[in-house]
Amino acid sequence: MSKATIYDVAGAARVSLATVSRAINNPEKVKPETRERVLRVIEELGYKPNAFAKGLASRKSTTVAVLVPDMSRASIAEMMNGIADIARVYKYSILLYILDHEETPEEDVLKEIVAAQVDGILYLNDEITDKQHDFLLSIKNDYKIPIVLTNTIFPDDDEIPSVSIDYDKAGYEITKKLIDEGRKNIYMVSTVRKYMVNDQKEAGYLRAIQEASLEPKIMRTSGRISINTEHFNEYFKDQKIDGLIAVRDSIAVSFMNVARQNNVPIPQNISVVGFQNTKYALLARPKLSCVDVPIYDIGAVGMRLLTKLMNQEDITEREIILDHSLVLRETTL
Amino acid sequence: MSKATIYDVAGAARVSLATVSRAINNPEKVKPETRERVLRVIEELGYKPNAFAKGLASRKSTTVAVLVPDMSRASIAEMMNGIADIARVYKYSILLYILDHEETPEEDVLKEIVAAQVDGILYLNDEITDKQHDFLLSIKNDYKIPIVLTNTIFPDDDEIPSVSIDYDKAGYEITKKLIDEGRKNIYMVSTVRKYMVNDQKEAGYLRAIQEASLEPKIMRTSGRISINTEHFNEYFKDQKIDGLIAVRDSIAVSFMNVARQNNVPIPQNISVVGFQNTKYALLARPKLSCVDVPIYDIGAVGMRLLTKLMNQEDITEREIILDHSLVLRETTL
DNA sequence: CTGAAAGCGCTTACAG
DNA sequence: CTGAAAGCGCTTACAG
Questions:
Q1: pLDDT per residue over B120-141, tens digit each?
Q2: Within a 10 A sphere around the Cβ of A91, how many other Cβ atoms?
Q3: Which residues of A touch B114 (CB under 8 A)?
Q4: Boundaries of CATH 3.40.50.2300 in chain A?
Q5: Which of A41, A291, B105, B269 is such that its CA lies 20 to 30 A from the CA of B136?
Q6: A64 and A113 in contact (C-beta within 8 Å)?
C-alpha cells in the first residue's frame, strides 16, 4: 500500500507514463478504451498523483493561499466554509495563513505565500494600510499572482478585485430605518481597529444622519465586553440616546444587557440594531434586528472569482457587490 | 524580479548548487566564508527555494494537513488559531481541509491529504466511526504519516495520540455541582450527531446521576434554535425540571430564553450550565455558568505534539489531557 | 569542505 | 492516438 507512482500505473496498464498523464489531465486526447483501462488500474492501485512532482512539472500548484486576520471571528470562519466548498469544486487546495499581529509582519507572511508557489491569494484581512496595499500590488504585478479581497475593500483601487456587500449603503439604510421611526439621538458603535468595512458602515451612517440634520455620534470600542459595559453605562446618564447601531451583533447584545440593567425598555425607548445576522442576534432577547450579510456567499463568490482570474478568463466586474438585506425583528419598532 | 533559482544563486556565488543547498539546509557543513557569500547572494537575489522541487527531492513537505468538520463552530475556529500560532513557530505550513459532509466522503479527502505529501495530520473531526478510525490507522501505519486527534478521542485507542480535556470528568463534576445544590430532575441536552466528546460528557453525567440514585434524562437535539424551542417548551408542561446541562453554551442560552418565556426564574427554579465558555455565556443574562475548555491550548498543544511525532522524538504521553475548570456565574446557585 | 551526478514523480512539446 | 525524452528545481549519497 505504499504509494503507487505513475510508472506503476503505466506498467500495469501496459502504456507509457505519458498516456497515463493524459488519461488524467486531458482525457479527450486518449482513445476511450485505453483511457478506461488506465482509469481502472488507477482505481485498483489507489494511485494519486504526487502533488510536488505535478506542481514542479506543470508550474501550477492548484493551491490557493487564504490569508486571514483571526479565525475566531465568526464572519471569518463562516467565509472559510464558503471558500472551502468552492475550492473543492474546482479542485484547489487551501494553504491557510493566520496573521499573529504581534509576532510576524504581514509582509513576511506574504513572502512565504509567494515562495509556496500558490496560484492565487484570497485576502481576508480587513485592516489594510497603504503600505500593505502597495505590497499586495507588487505581488500581483511582479509575480503575476491573482489576488481577491474578500469581504473587504480598498478605496479607489481598480487593480485588485474584491467581493463584498455595499456596507456604505447598508449603513445608510439601517440608519434611515431608525430615523424613520422618529429616533433623534442615534449612536453608532464602531471599533477602535480600523476595519475597512466599518469605515464604510460609518460613512453610510453619517450620510443618513446629515441628511436628516441630526447630530452624528460615533463611539469606538475595543469590543471587549467589560469595557463596553462601562462605556454604555455612560449613555444612560443623560438619557438622551434613543437609537443604537452596532457594527457587530455581539456589541449590540452587549449594549442591550446594559440597557436592561438600567431598566430601559427595548425597543420602546431605544431601537437597537447590529450587523451580520449571527447566532448572537437570534439568541438575544428581544431578538436583534440587523443587517444580514451573506458571509458564506462572499467567501464562495470570492473563491469563484479567483478561479476565473487564475484561468486568465476575462473578468467583467472587478468589484462584486452582493445583496444584503435588513432583518427586522424585535429590537426595532 | 521573476523568481531566481538555485542555479542563479550558485552562478552568482561561484559555487555548485549542492553547496547552495547545504548553505541553506546544513550550514555547519559549509565553510563559514563560503556560506556567508552564498547567503549574501540569496539575500540580493531575493531567492526563495521552490517548495515543490524541495518537497519532491526531500520527500518532506514541512506541511501539515488540518482536517476540520465545520469552521463555523466556535471551538473549531479558536483551535485553528492555536494550531496556526504553533505551526508558525516550527515553520510548518497548513493545508486546510473542511469536510462538506454531504458531498465528499471523508475517505476521499484523506486520500487527497496523503497525495499532498503532508508530514503530519491534525484530525479535528469529532465524529469518528469505526470505519473512519480504521482508515486513519491505515494511513498512520501504511504511509507512516503521524496523526494527532485534537479535541476528540477514540475510545480504547492506544495507537493514535490525542489532546483534549477529560470530558467525562467535566461532565461528572458539573452534574455533581447541580446535585449538591439539591437538584433532583437534571436534564442533559446533547446532540443528535454522535460527537465523541459529547459521548464522554454524557457518560460523566450518567455516572453522577446514578451515584445519586436519580433518574437520568438525556435529550438529543439537532442544535437548530427553532427546534430546540419546541422541545424545551415540553419541559415546562410537567414542571418537573430543575436542572439543565447543555453540551454547548448556545444550547443553554436557547433554553434560558424559553424558560424566561414561561416565567421560570433562573437559577431560582432551574440551574442551567453549558460547556466551553464562549462569548455566548458572557453575553447571556443571567450570565451562564459553564465548564471552561481551554480550546486554544488544545489546538496549540496538538500541533506541538505533532511536531514531535514528525521529528520522530520519543513521546511519553500518547494521550494528553489538559486541565478544565468550572466557571460559576449567575445561572447556578 | 566541495562538486558531479543521479533521482524525486510528474508534464509536455515533439515525432511518429 | 501514443511513446521517448527532456526538463521542472531541488536534495543527497558518493567521491575526492
A1: 999 999 889 999 999 999 889 8
A2: 9
A3: 3, 48
A4: 63-165+295-323, 167-293
A5: A41
A6: no
Q: Which amino acid is at A117?
A: Q
Whether the CB-CB separation of B281 and B288 falls below 8 Å is answered with yes
Q: Is residue B244 within 8 Å of B271, Cβ to Cβ?
A: yes
Cβ of B30 less than 7 A from strand C: yes
Q: Which residue is nearest to nucleotide D6 (CA to C1')?
A: A57
Is the model's pTM score more than 0.90?
yes
How does the average pLDDT of chain A come out, rounded? 91
Does the pLDDT of residue B240 top 70, yes or no?
Answer: yes
Query: What rounded mean pLDDT belongs to chain B?
Result: 91
Confidence tier at B1 by pLDDT (50, 70, 90): very low
Residue whose C-alpha cell is 467525562: B168
Coil, helix or strand for A264? coil
pLDDT tens for each residue of A245-288? 999 999 999 999 999 999 999 999 999 999 999 999 999 999 99
Whether the Cβ atoms of residue B163 and residue B149 lie closer than 8 Å to each other: yes
Q: Which residue is nearest to nucleotide C8 (CA to C1')?
A: B57
Interatomic distance B115 CA / C12 C1' (Å): 22
* C1' of C13 to CA of B63 (Å): 33
Homologous superfamily in CATH for domain A167-293: Response regulator (3.40.50.2300)
Is the link from the previous residue into A32 a cis peptide, with omega within 30 of 0? no
Nucleotide C5 C1' to residue B25 CA (A) = 20
Q: What is the dihedral of CA A118, A59, A85, A151, to 10 degrees?
A: 40
Res. A2: pLDDT tops 90? no
Identify residue B258 by its one-letter amino acid code: V
Rounded to 5 degrees, what angle do the CA atoms B298, B301, B307 make? Answer: 140
Alpha carbon distance B95, B92 (integer Å): 10
| Per-residue model confidence (pLDDT) at position B227 | 77
Strands A186-191 and A217-221: parallel
Digit-coded pLDDT (tens) for B55-85: 899 888 889 999 999 999 999 999 999 999 9
Q: Count CB-CB contacts under 10 A for residue B323.
A: 9
- Provide the grid cell at A276: 451580520
Smallest CA–C1' separation from B7, nucleotide:
D9
Q: Is pLDDT above 90 for B51?
A: no
Measured CA to C1', the nucleotide nearest B56 is: C8
| CATH architecture classification, B63-165+295-323 | 3-Layer(aba) Sandwich (3.40)
